[in-house]
């Protein structure tokens, strides 16, 4: 059993059934702009989940990039000004 499944069982979280998945996939489809911009009204659940994962990875990358840039700015000579703006 995967560690994720073990954690779900230990936490008492209930399993998601097929009906719940079928209900969530269209909601994800509306949230992800890459899928929404396509002309197709129907996408497979696996495609929606794949696009969702890609979107989340991209968001993580953006956060990492912005964090790196902020860190570089804070180390610069104008760090006091930047810190005061953040507070």
TrEMBL record:
InterPro entries, A to Z: bHLH_dom, HLH_DNA-bd_sf, PRE
Any one Pfam family match given in the protein's UniProt record, by short name: bHLH_ILI
Main location: nucleus
One Gene Ontology CC term in the entry: nucleus
BHLH domain boundaries: 5-59
Subcellular compartments: Nucleus
One record GO biological process: regulation of growth
Keyword field: Growth regulation, Nucleus, Transcription, Transcription regulation
Keyword Transcription regulation among UniProt keywords: yes
A GO molecular-function descriptor: protein dimerization activity
Matches recorded under PANTHER family: TRANSCRIPTION FACTOR PRE, TRANSCRIPTION FACTOR PRE6
Protein name (Swiss-Prot/TrEMBL): BHLH domain-containing protein
Organism encoding this protein: Salvia splendens
